[in-house]
Amino acid sequence: MGWYDEQVLPRIINVACGVKSARPLRRRVCTGLVGDVVEIGFGSGHNVPFYPAAVRSVSAVEPSDVGWRLASGRVEKSHVLVRRAGLDGQRLPFADASFDSALSTWTLCTIPDVQAALTELRRVLKPGGVLRFLEHGLAPEQDVKVRRWQYRLEPLQMRVFGGCHLTRPITELLATAGFALTEVDAFYEEGAPKPLGADSLGSALSA
């Protein structure tokens, strides 16, 4: 990682992911989290204010030291115990069946080996544990023009935003990893260009 990725990009993401319009989505995706939670791509902690009372603890997986420092104010104010417990979603440092719930928000687009990360999440979730996800990815099949623009823009998006893909089929990836999808709401994020804001929000169970 170079200076831009280490020092500049986490600050850009902190601002971009902290927009007011994202708060209702964060509140929705955090609904249903219970017990001990693992959150991959914790970033600067924008989900922290929305953890429900049923959450006992959060193990934050976040590679960026700058991102974690930017999260400090939110973590200190949290009613939930939050600790930085890992750096790489592809290799989680936890025992099998350690967590009741998992959370991923706008993270699966960037992890280099996304299938490895999803396999790891299944491994550390208890049987029947829930993964709550809010991700952007490939637009619906019928939106051919949007998809075309996503493929055009993806190389630039990856260069500017630290490897962020626009064309990952989120629900297909979850199913391939062995998760059972129980809820999916696919929509375009308000205020975002369609190629950048094709979101999926929902739940998947660990078998």
* Main sheet: strands, sense, barrel: 7 strands, mixed
Query: Structural class of the helix and strand makeup?
Result: alpha/beta
What name does CATH use for the topology?
A: Rossmann fold
Unreliable stretches, pLDDT < 50, 5 or more residues?
none
Query: How would you spell out the order of helices and strands?
Result: HHEEHHEEHEHHEE
Name the CATH superfamily assignment.
Answer: Vaccinia Virus protein VP39
For the largest sheet, list the strands in their spatial order: 3-2-1-4-5-7-6
**SS strand fraction:** 25-35%
Percentage of residues in helical conformation: 25-40%
- Form type: globular
Question: What's the SSE blueprint?
Answer:
Blueprint: H1 3-16, H2 23-30, E1 35-40, E2 55-61, H3 65-70, H4 72-77, E3 81-86, E4 99-105, H5 114-124, E5 125-136, H6 144-160, H7 170-176, E6 179-188, E7 198-206
Parallel strand pairs: 1-2, 1-4, 2-3, 4-5
Antiparallel strand pairs: 5-7, 6-7
Question: Would you kindly provide a brief summary of this structure?
Answer:
With 207 residues, the protein is of the alpha/beta class.
Features:
7 helices, single chain, 207 residues, Rossmann fold, alpha/beta, seven-stranded mixed β-sheet
